[in-house]
Amino acid sequence: MTKLMVVGVDGSADSLTALKMAGELAEESGTGLVVVHVRHESGVVAANGALAGAGVAINEALDEVEAMSRGRAVDVLAGCRVPWRFEVAFGDPASELIAAAGHHRAITIVVGGRTHGVVGGLVAGSVAQKLVRHSPVSVLVVRDGHPHGLHIAPSPVGR
Fold this sequence. Notes:
The protein is of the alpha/beta class. It contains seven helices and six strands, in the order βαβαααβαβααββ. Helices cover about 45% and strands about 20% of the residues. A six-stranded mixed β-sheet has the order 3-2-1-4-5-6, with helices on both faces. Strand 5 and strand 6 form a beta hairpin. Helix 5 (about 95-105) crosses helix 7 (about 125-135). Residues about 50-55, about 115-125 and about 150-155 have low confidence and may be disordered.
């Protein structure tokens, strides 16, 4: 059985940076990836508050974000030599990423981290915060393109 990492993507630059980092880590460690996009209505509304006013159907917006996330994941992982698949879940992003990790017996969950102000963090919460608090597996939060505090030892293969 191949070990897997679950990577949450929402099409944002932060999530794509995390996906790129996960791809590099997967290549180094011989791990596969399950790239998970969670369709989350309030996330789309928060990203573009004008949707309701413009009369754009939420499902159409969710379809567009999903298609964009899928396309960008293909682009980011184009050069990686790791097995990976793209899955779509519906609901709360943190809960769905934890469920995907459990379903696939993943060794870790990788997500991009955004910097929230005090009020933003209290009101909106954070997928990364929820994951760190509730995930039964390790969580890697990639900020500014770097996994903070992570050190990868060289592979002992060929020694």
